[in-house]
Specification:
heterodimer, A: 233 residues, Ribosomal Protein S5, domain 2, 5-stranded mixed beta sheet, 10 strands, B: OB fold (Dihydrolipoamide Acetyltransferase, E2P), Ribosomal Protein S8, Chain: A, domain 1, 7 helices, flat
Chain lengths: 233, 275
């Protein structure tokens, strides 16, 4: 059975789920943001730049960035998720950090640290992408010097179709091969700062999927910019 | 030919194109990518001829030489004190810079400034690695006793102070509170408890509406509305009286604040004067 219609009722295969974004939602943080895409909700809080301890971790040339990705206990669709760092969360924290670092200018803050905490009250696939979007907005809200925002979305294939922004039902599709490719792009230069893949896909489909993804990221970038400006209206 | 794409006071987001063409110049908070000038931080665009810069709206305090800040003593070391400056970097207050008085060898420094005390101090030096030195020798630099401390966005401080201190003076006079504003976003307020409340509310209102116009009038309206008539009269009279006594009380303050335990105080004044 071929994949002819999107399971969640979206009209097109390159359609994103509805997006809502907000900044400045956590009072005590230096910067914060919420990014929701479909049923996936990410909250990011930025603390810092602040003093870094233990001292041996300090870098006298520039500040460091620490990201924490955390899914809340009942955020998944299945069993209770054990909160706290597990192997998956640590990996995603690491790739989030690496996807954000190219835009940040932390040389102005030697020996210090910028902490980014990303929490997920509910998830429905695409959480690392939502997390990166939220984190980049929160960093901008915190007044950290940065060259650009980072926008992220997942692309991939379900059976013979190239799709954008897979939800969990598509990721778990059993009628054919599936590939899930989270990607993050720096809009001003078009550079890709995150590219991972789970599943199988041909070279031609991969290239096409990335091209479509880049186009759709413009919508996400607009939502991020709008949310940041909204705070000061 | 270059073109500037933003208007004065537009809110810009990192990555936004502010201007195109090589004849426009990037300034603070912007960078050039190809022919474009883009924003490197969130803030308000400022256009000065062909130069574009950004006034930040958010972000933590970054220590700068010459700033007067309010800091908290968080450690006492052999040669002085370490202060929490409400930024990513602590500051060092040396013994020589702490007071104009003589401090005896081996004296217990916590008797001068104890842990948890707040002081008004001035940043004398910041190194490339952000080692911060502060001094407390100068007019108005002192330990803060009593009162309340509030925290505001450090980028809104100039607005809270107002032109030549007009805003803060207005709040001071209306509430009869003593207010000290630190560049690092800490504000100390001391007065009658209910007046302190009103002063704090006024400051927070000024902070929240800092990026809008006609702020002074709105704060004036807020103060008039919230302070009862008779209290207004009383505060006004007191403020006038105090301003005439101000010079006197300041010198008094300075002479009395430090090192209550050191009996050699007065005798050793000449120690400083000789230098």
């Amino acid at each position: 059975m071929a994949y002819t219609k999107r399971i969640d009722g979206r009209k097109k295969f390159d359609e994103l789920r509805p997006i809502s974004a907000k900044t400045g939602i956590i009072q005590r943080a230096n910067g914060s943001a919420m990014f929701q895409i479909g049923k996936t909700v990410a909250y990011a809080a930025v603390y810092g730049p602040r003093e870094l301890h233990p001292k041996f971790m300090q870098n006298p040339k520039k500040g460091i960035l620490r990201c924490y990705y955390n899914m809340m206990p009942f955020s998944g669709s299945g069993d209770r998720v054990r909160p706290g760092p597990n192997r998956r969360a640590k990996e995603i924290s690491m790739v989030t950090e690496k996807s954000l670092l190219p835009v940040l200018d932390l040389e102005q803050f030697p020996n210090s640290v910028v902490d980014v905490f990303i929490e997920f009250p509910q998830t429905d696939a695409g959480s690392r992408c939502a997390g990166i979007c939220a984190a980049s907005m929160a960093l901008a809200d915190a007044g950290i010097p940065m060259k650009d925002l980072v926008s992220a979305v997942s692309v991939g294939r379900v059976d013979d179709k190239i799709v954008v922004d897979l939800d969990y039902s598509e990721e778990a599709y059993e009628g054919g091969p599936v590939a899930d490719i989270p990607m993050a792009v720096i809009p001003s230069t078009g550079n890709v700062s995150l590219l991972q893949m789970d599943g199988e896909i041909s070279k031609e489909m991969l290239i096409e999927a990335l091209e479509i993804g880049k186009k759709k990221l413009a919508e996400i970038h607009d939502a991020q910019r709008k949310a940041l400006k909204e705070k000061y209206k | 030919m270059g073109e500037i794409k933003v208007k004065e006071k537009d809110i810009v987001v990192p990555g936004d194109i502010l201007a195109t063409g090589m004849d426009c110049l990037p300034s603070y908070g912007t960078y050039r990518l190809g022919d474009d000038i883009r924003a490197a931080r969130l803030g308000l665009a400022k256009v000065e001829g062909k130069v574009v810069k950004i006034t930040s709206l958010s972000g933590r305090y970054i220590p700068k030489r010459g700033d007067t800040i309010i800091a908290k003593i968080y450690d006492v070391i052999m040669s002085g004190w370490l202060l929490d400056t409400n930024s990513a970097y602590h500051a060092m207050l040396g013994m020589k810079e702490a007071t104009s008085r003589f401090i005896q060898k081996g004296a217990d420094l916590t008797r001068i400034y104890a842990l948890g005390d707040y002081v008004v101090c001035k940043i004398t030096n910041v190194t490339s690695q952000k080692l911060v030195d502060v001094s407390m020798r100068g007019p108005g630099l002192r330990k803060l006793e009593g009162g309340r401390m509030i925290e505001v966005n450090t980028h809104k401080v100039p607005r809270i102070i107002g032109k030549d201190g007009s805003m803060v003076t207005m709040i001071k006079n209306a509430t009869n509170c003593r207010i000290t504003v630190g560049q690092n976003g800490l504000i100390w307020v001391s007065g009658e408890p209910d007046m302190e409340n009103i002063a704090i509310q006024a400051i927070q209102k000024a902070e929240a509406e800092a990026h809008t116009g006609g702020l002074t009038d709105r704060i004036k309206g807020f103060l008039d509305k919230n302070i009862p008539k008779e209290a207004q009269e009383k505060n006004k009279a007191k403020a006038q009286q105090e301003s005439s006594n101000e010079e006197e009380s300041r010198t008094f303050d300075r002479d009395n604040k430090f090192d209550r335990d050191n009996r050699f105080d007065r005798n050793n004044r000449f120690d400083r004067d000789k230098k």
